[in-house]
Amino acid sequence: MSEIQSEAPVLATPQHRLGAVAVDVGLIFATSFIGWGIWSLIVWGKGQTPGKQLLKVRVLNEPTGKPATWGQMLIRQVLIGWALATPYTIAYWFYIANLNQAALFGLVACVLLVIALYILDIVWTFGPSHRRLIDYWAGTIVVNEAG
Amino acid sequence: MSDNTNWEARYDASTPNETELSAVDNRRKQSRDIAKWFFGISILLTLISIAASLSSGSTRTSAVDEFLSTQSETSDTSSWDSSWVPAGFTAWSSDSNIAWKWADKNNCDNYGCISADFISRDGCPNGLYAALNWLDSNDVVVSYDNATLPSLLPLQTAKLRFDDVQELGKSGQMAEINCR
User: Fold this and answer.
1) Which residues of chain B have a Cβ shorter than 8 Å from any chain A Cβ?
2) Rounded CA separation B144/B133 (Å)
3) Domain count of chain A?
């Protein structure tokens, strides 16, 4: 019990979080996704991604305050992204199948909508709780362990 | 596990007050609203796009039909004698001396192919040339093939095969037939 600290966890700043994302992206390219993927599968159980682990950032389950579970990380890191990409994917394949202006309009509109959502997501990170939209959807917060 | 306990204890120490909880609840509600709006608009856009695309597809078909009917109207076929054309054959649009039909059977080798039968009323002593466009599923011409005969006797039937070496086509469109 001696290691329990009484101070509140420090929320990761947007800059810190962006840094972790940048490290993740760098690692994805550096390891051709494979190494990053395997590393992710290991550290997801601790509520981290490789980038977050290197920059000492951790994802916590909001209601309990415990590190996010592997399943929660899967939802947060993958399934939400897939769900967001579904309309775009449908529009893309519909355009490929039809190659006409209406299908192109649908594709461009869906792309713009996804871009708008990601911009909004980034803007939200600068809010008072430094939480992204996906943090609310997945019920997580991101804290800084660096001290 | 001690790591988890550590975080839990620190988290308990940071329990937010009612004002903060209210702000968090508002944000949570807003995030759900954003998700609903995003998927609502996305689905709407996709449906509009599909509907408009299918509609423009019909327009394109109509335009093609109109073009083809215009072509057939402008071609002077009134003086043509097509009485010689055997059953199942169609007189070629620009030469009433030649008729053709898709072959009943295609004997392909390594690639996709289409065969067609040709017949000429007066024959083609100097040869017959035929070219076929390969179309994809959107009726876009993606490749072609041609075939020739050194000669064709009057009312003699010849079968020519057109290969799709690049395997790009889904259907064939007879593009040209010439009696040389």
Assistant:
1) 2-14, 23-24, 27-28, 31-32, 34-35, 38-39, 41-43, 45-46, 48-50, 52-53, 55-57, 60, 137-138, 140
2) 4
3) 1
